[in-house]
């Protein structure tokens, strides 16, 4: 569908290409994207450029995982006919918008960004923060506005980045004198981040507490077996606690039979329901959920050329979209656009004569 | 000449497009460039992107002066057959290299850069420095390395920026494992910056003490008349001081008859030579110097389309050059290059199988 006749809201989302995706990504974003691709114009960004802002020492990892994340997208049901999957580093207009936006935001504003502050701390950068990392809110504003996205699914902790984007949007629109760029709103998922199987913080590959989307049946069985429950629930006959019990958190996330889950919770609380029984139920659900994903993923992985073709053709389409935005912003600001130097000779003549 | 057979050293230089150039630019850089274009592969960058880092509120000025500066280049004798004149914002590879390099330099290193420190102070930015301004040393490193320049003519105060560039070059080459990028050396002109006609600091349009390259004969006469000399040299018969006397500084810069200038200085020092006589000599020299420049400039200004054609075709050539560097750097780092996704399917298959 041509850009101008497609009236669906535009979503931009994506993932840093630092590792294959896992069940936490599935619960928190991937399955929403599969649903949203029907009602929205959806762009999925393989964010290799952003991944470099804190992985400059290991670019090969960033490259390798472009294919891994693309495989994950296709395996969970992202349909390239409905969703545009594109490679961030293949979109030079985003780099150009980023540099432009950096002129419209101060260093102190970037430093005050709560997301940046927390992530600097989490990554232990201290004073030696890479400049690219400090600047990434401007890069994110470029990503969002480059696609003219109005809906950006993010975790609650990322909401300040959307606010930062909208500040830049307002500043540019004010200077241009009309709303060239739309403001975006954060779409915060109703469920929080999935905890890791050890119950220690969110699921994360680096914490070794993740179930990857390519997990084998044995991997899944082992992960469920060692899953954190209620450490004080030593006998099946005794009452147990559901809150913070990872098995129940996962049932909440993946068991479609809500009534059955509530009944299990009540049973567990009053005693008489052992961990093993609850884990069996969860294992069945996860095996059923992951089996088709794993199989599709394995089949696609046999043909990386096909997967990269999808990424390439998505990137081409995204190039047009983002280049059009860049041209519009540059022209709105009264800057010269190289592609149009010829057309503007007359306009220049006028302005220099004045 | 194709890139690989041209063994001449590569020079990158250029100007921020914030205003037409003046006699200070001519003395400090333009006339050197006219000479260097014979022995060097010279690229002149119309630095509109960089100009925005502290002119975001007035992009129209930045746009308008693209043509003005290009006119100045051609008027002084830059030959587009020998020198590539190109528009910075027409070179997306430079934006991409900039973002990449920002990952290889820390915020504290940028803040310690003496040039940045001084310019922050001079522009009165304080804590509200635009992020783009703080990052401009990385952009400059992208400019220099994008063209693989080894010689960069800069004022003495800009030498730390070349050192910063070479730090990034060394860091990248170390990571890539071979010298993909050359180090650059600063070419610092033997003559210092030309003072303004009022003797207060360097010549600068914003200080109102500049003689533009398009100055009319009357402008030149007036400028020389009000030129700062020795305020204590009230009568021609008395001894006068040559040091800090702008008329003599300009004679040093523009009078090719060195012996005559030395004789004039001696005469002035011992007394008996009036300011009016020295100014007449300087005025004759400046009129002779600027008349052909002014005439060529006026003729070219009649045909902005022709001038922009030169810029456009130079930008096209520069696009190839800078894109080749970006590809080489990305591939050296092991990153995926969009243009080559297809070629790399096999390489990816190998690396993911490992």
TrEMBL record, chains A, B:
One of its GO terms (cellular component) is cytosol. Belongs to the class-I aminoacyl-tRNA synthetase family. The keyword Nucleotide-binding applies. It comes from the Bacteria. Its EC number is 6.1.1.2. One of its GO terms (molecular function) is ATP binding. InterPro entries: aa-tRNA-synth_Ic, Rossmann-like_a/b/a_fold, Trp-tRNA-ligase, Trp-tRNA_synthetase. The keyword 4Fe-4S does not apply. It catalyses: tRNA(Trp) + L-tryptophan + ATP = L-tryptophyl-tRNA(Trp) + AMP + diphosphate + H(+). Keywords: Aminoacyl-tRNA synthetase, ATP-binding, Ligase, Nucleotide-binding, Protein biosynthesis. This is Tryptophan--tRNA ligase. It comes from Microvirga flocculans.
């Amino acid at each position: 569908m041509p850009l101008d006749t497609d009236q669906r809201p535009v979503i931009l989302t994506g993932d840093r290409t630092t590792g294959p995706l896992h069940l936490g990504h599935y619960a928190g974003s991937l399955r929403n994207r599969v649903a949203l691709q029907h009602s929205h114009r959806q762009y999925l960004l393989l964010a290799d450029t952003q991944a470099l802002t804190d992985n400059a020492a290991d670019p090969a990892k960033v490259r390798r995982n472009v294919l891994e994340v693309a495989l994950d997208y296709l395996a969970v049901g992202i349909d390239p006919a409905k969703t545009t999957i594109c490679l961030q580093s293949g979109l030079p207009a985003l780099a150009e918008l980023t540099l432009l936006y950096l002129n419209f935001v101060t260093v102190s504003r970037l430093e005050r960004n709560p997301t940046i502050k927390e992530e600097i701390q989490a990554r232990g950068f201290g004073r030696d923060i890479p400049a690219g990392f400090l600047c990434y809110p401007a890069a994110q504003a470029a990503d969002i506005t480059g696609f003219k996205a109005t809906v950006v699914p993010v975790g609650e902790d990322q909401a300040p980045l959307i606010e930062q984007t909208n500040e830049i949007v307002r500043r540019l629109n004010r200077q241009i004198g009309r709303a060239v760029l739309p403001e975006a709103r954060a779409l915060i998922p109703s469920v929080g981040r999935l905890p890791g199987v050890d119950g220690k913080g969110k699921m994360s590959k680096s914490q070794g507490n993740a179930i990857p989307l390519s997990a084998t049946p044995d991997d899944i069985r082992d992960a469920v077996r060692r899953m954190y429950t209620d450490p004080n629930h030593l006998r099946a006959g005794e009452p147990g606690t559901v809150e913070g019990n990872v098995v129940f958190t996962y049932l909440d996330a993946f068991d479609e039979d809500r009534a059955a889950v509530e009944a299990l919770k009540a049973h567990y609380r009053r005693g008489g329901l052992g961990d093993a029984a609850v884990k069996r139920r969860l294992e069945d659900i996860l095996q059923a959920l992951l089996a088709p994903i794993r199989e599709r993923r394995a089949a696609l992985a046999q043909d990386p050329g096909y997967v990269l073709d999808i990424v390439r053709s998505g990137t081409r389409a995204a190039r047009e979209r983002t280049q059009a935005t860049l041209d519009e912003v540059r022209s709105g600001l009264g800057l010269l656009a190289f592609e149009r130097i010829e057309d503007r000779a007359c306009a220049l003549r006028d302005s220099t004569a004045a």
